[in-house]
Design brief:
heterodimer, A: 437 residues, 5-stranded mixed β-sheet, 6 helices, B: 230 residues, alpha+beta, 3-stranded antiparallel β-sheet, 6 strands
Amino acid sequence: MTRRLVGALHHPRLAVAFLALVAAANVSVSVHAQPPGGDEDLPAVQLSGAGVEMLKLALPRAEGDPGEAGATMSKDMDVTGLFQLLDPASFPAQLQSEGLGFSSALWSQVGAQAVIKMKVSGGVLEGRVYIVARGDSAVLTKSYRAADQRDAVHAFANDVVKAFTGQPGVFGSRIALAITGHSAHEIALVDMDGGRTAVVTKMGSDNLLPAFSPTGGEIAFTSYLRNNPDLYVVSAGGGRARRVSKEPGLNTGAAWSPNGHSLALTMSYEGNSELYKINPSDGRVEARLTNNPAIDSSPAFSPDGSQIAFVSNRQGSPQIFIMSASGGAAKRITFQGKYNQTPRWNPRGDKPQIAFTGRDERGVFDVFILDVKSGKIDRVTQGKGSNLDPTWSPDGRLLAYVSSRGGLYVNNPETHHEVQVWRGSASSPSWGPAPAR
Amino acid sequence: MARETIRRGSRRNFAGLLITAAIHGVVFLAVARAHNQPEAPFIVRHDFVLAEMVKLGKPRDPFWLPRITQPPRPTAPPDQIKLSEDPDAKAAPKEAPRPEDPKISKELKNALERAKKLEALAAPDDDEGSLTGSKLGTANHATGDQYDAQVVGLLRANYNLPAGLTPDQVPIPPEITFHIAPDGTIGDVKLAKSSANSFVDDACVDAAKLTGKVPPPPPTRHGMRIQCIK
């Protein structure tokens, strides 16, 4: 048999066939004999749809601080909605007396992912940020000097936010509000953390619907001082307000264009509520933007100034529409709910979003965000009274609104973390620009 | 004549041997070369599935503005807590009705009654969802290979990125690899590719570590490579 096989192999064609068989068997055996491939050889499977986690942040008592710096920083970090503040009572004494030094091993036992340290001495605030997973060296070390310690803490808080997110915070920015006094509404400015309040108008009349100019230097508002809803502009530092538009009927709900060169507002001097564009310095009408028998109101410029979102009941119930900033055809963008109003564009150009007030099927007003591209609506508030008149922070990360619970609230829509920053009765907040750095 | 035949035959044999040796050589060289070449990744045939889990309930009218989906409310503990398993244990004496507190003012009573009415008005919301969903559905869905989808679905529950991250902060999505034991235990979790952001890397690694165990893998599966995207 063997001799026959050897003999057969002498035939070239048979030999080739035999060898091919041997080779194929050899290759096949080599594949099966190979141990299972390492994990690095596997095709990657994508994991998406991550939840959002607030970073666990420890803020031990600041060295040399009677309490104010620590309280301000604690409030600032809470308002960002990015951090879960750990209770300082849970820190062992060893960590409380650590000073500006840092032991990542000890802080990891407390459950902290990051630690903020401060030292106050001679009007200088020294701040450090540590990330527990990165060892004992600080990722941020900086000193701040300011006439008011709160401003120094806010500056440090902005740098802390930048250290974690890549974008600085907006502490030091202010929110304009129409606050309710004994007999009148006045325009006031509130620090975004609610720390300081300053009344800008002292006109003794109903002053409503403030709108911060893009530079933060001026505020436009509607006043009934002369028994007609006229449009005024006042310096953010206070002083005498000048009447910009005094046409008969409505001169209300002004919005500044992003370059500050014009104001869009609702006027009714031609008989019907329409949107107009005027010059903010002399009130000259530059253009009539809408021409519809329905009521058009609440204009809001897109961040690039090319579009205007507004409210109209031209298709029955109040809904949000967009049109070119020079007027023309309008396109309806909200199709859910029966009553949607007060649209506000997110100032971040890369995120075409509009926050608005919507009334749900239970008759409750809440804050919603519309993704302009997809038309998808996300709810920001729910089950906590009525929440109205949203306004975006200058970095487009936070929303402030007033609530029937009383006061002004700031909400991070990403984490749904909400903080009451100011107590009192107020309406129509308008968030000013980020502080100069 | 016979000599010539033998000579011719031996020449043919010699040529055959030469050809055979040459073919042997070529084939063995080819096999050796194939062995030395890097092996192409072993790709398991994917059976694509689309699975969607939705909550059981009355479908929400799409006309209305959306509501934030709430986690299921915890059920109240039973009125009577069984402290003893002793069937002969005596029942606890009934508590005598408490006398009305004379200090409670009429206003407070009214306020309490009003609060009760308000509480009744704020009845829990009707369950909204799909008529064919599951009671505990959370409206998440997964696509891809059946086993991959199962594992990714479990990992997703533990995948949490830090808040406030902007896309430019994670230019490279991190990748992890891990081993899956025959009983489904996840082990040897390694960061295969870093995103250059330690929080994002940690979130990816933690997703596998916190999950701990997944369904037993198919016989051909010994591990997985996961790319974590936002």
